[in-house]
Description:
The protein has helices at 13-18, 22-45, 83-89, 102-111, 180-189, 191-201, 260-269, 281-288, 297-311, 399-403, 453-457; strands at 51-52, 74-78, 113-116, 119-122, 127-129, 142-144, 159-164, 170-176, 222-223, 228-229, 315-318, 325-326, 334-336, 348-354, 366-373, 383-386, 393-395, 408-415, 419-420, 423-424, 434-435, 446-452, 467-469, 473-481, 487-492, 502-506, 521-529, 537-545, 558-565. It is of the alpha+beta class.
Amino acid sequence: MATLERFHSPGYQAEKDFGNDLDGLDQFNEQWNNNLNRWTNQSIVGNPWSNQYDDNRYYYVNPLTTSLNAANPVPITWNPFPNRLFNFFQDPQAPANEQLSTDQIFALADAGAITINGVTTPIGDLQVPQQLCPNNNWQGRLIGYTPTGSRGWLDEYCEWSIRYDPDGQLRSVMFTCENPAYWFTLWQVNPDLVVKLYQQVINPAVQREDLYLLDPNGKPIFDPLTNDYAYDPTNKWNRDTTQLADRGGAMHLTSGPNTLSAEMYLAAAATIARTCGNTDPQTLICCSQYGRPRRNSDPHIGQLANQVAVNGQTAITLTDPVGLYIQSPNIKLWAVNNQPDYPVANLWQVTRGEVNRVSPGNGNDSILHAIFTVPEGMQASDILITDPQTGKQEPLQWAGQIARTFMIALRASTAPLPTSGSNPVPQHPRPCVVVMDSTYPNLQPWPVQFLPNDLYQANSPIDLSPSVPQGSSTLMALVVQGGLENASIEFSPPDGIAPVVIEQYINDNSGSPGQTSGGSTQVYLFTLTVDANAPLGDRNLRVVNLDKEAPIGGVPWIPSLLNIVDKA
């Protein structure tokens, strides 16, 4: 089987979005292919800087350079309701004041807060164990629930926004699993198209300025690399779980962990054989330290990917077009009270992406966005939803009831094992990951985000490698994990880039794209100066802690964290 010509957009949606704008589509396709190629290569490298036993993931391959097996892709599916809500707040070991009923958990998922005895508590104020491995430790330190934010707790790669009537009754629910990187890339190519799509899907009232990233004073942030205002993925039309006439909606994912680059990184991390084995998903994720334990998604994705790679003695990659996809609901679980013949399939409308005609709902659908609507003349309570786990039928009241009736999926393809000469190289199990801190002699910074300083100051979660024009000088922020104040920043090849002088070191301790919660991050601010005749193309980057010993072989480079583009 030949190598992949290029990475395609999720669900081949770009072809529909650009329509007759073939020049714009070509520009988007080039940028999108470059994004996924970079993420793939970065995922294969892993983290050799601040982790032990988490690098050289050679059993995850880049399909642009490695031929795949002819076998059909393997679907990996999970339910999109945030399992950690049930795991924490119905844990028998939890304190009594942390125990919630199923209806209260559904309410918490829909609102991001819980009201008990007239007192409303935001989800971030609810206490959960800091130590999750090997089990929830309620006797240890307790911390606020994370992630929070606009819809942070909906962290299973699916988010929703609900429209209520004036009486507070549910009328419709938007579901999305579209990744934010698609929209960042679309904005870089054609911001007006982004506005048009928002108007079509969310609300005709959307204006271009509504989508701008704002500073703390409400002023739009100008992106010096694109000569336009920066895109805000949590703009007023794509935030919260309530949709109103003048704000709210679910265009794409916003929760910190819900990124495509994180999905790819997780899949690559999950290919490493571990001494703990792969029979228990929670044990494996605690050992490998990808994603967050107790989710429906991350532990399951990791276990299935590991079993395919390790048990099947094969290499894997995520199937093109790489994406996260809603699956058709099990409408057998839906009914209308006293109307046994009501066509309940009409309650569900796919608005972006496609349904697989041969095998809908079984991991092969490529649905990106869908809306569940309560018909006029009917109340939500007229619709009965059977919970697939409990078998209990209840009137529709919460969006989570609907979410429990469908799955999210990604797909994995296999490839031959790496070879030494002509011989396949099987895996040998590695120990569990060890996270290094400042006490380790070889600690080196792991670069996790690189962006203009103004975007960093406005907390942009963009995870694309910046495209910096020739002949420019830009104040940049480099976010790392494990970075110390006395450090140097280098590019490879260095041609046409002035030596970096670090202007400010910030022990930031906040999150970065793909992370569940903040912590252990540092930021270097410096002016990136690129010569007018600097060679075009990607550059690798590394940061060296000068007060630490370099590992044998030197400090590794992270591939393609910078792209030099034509000054025109």
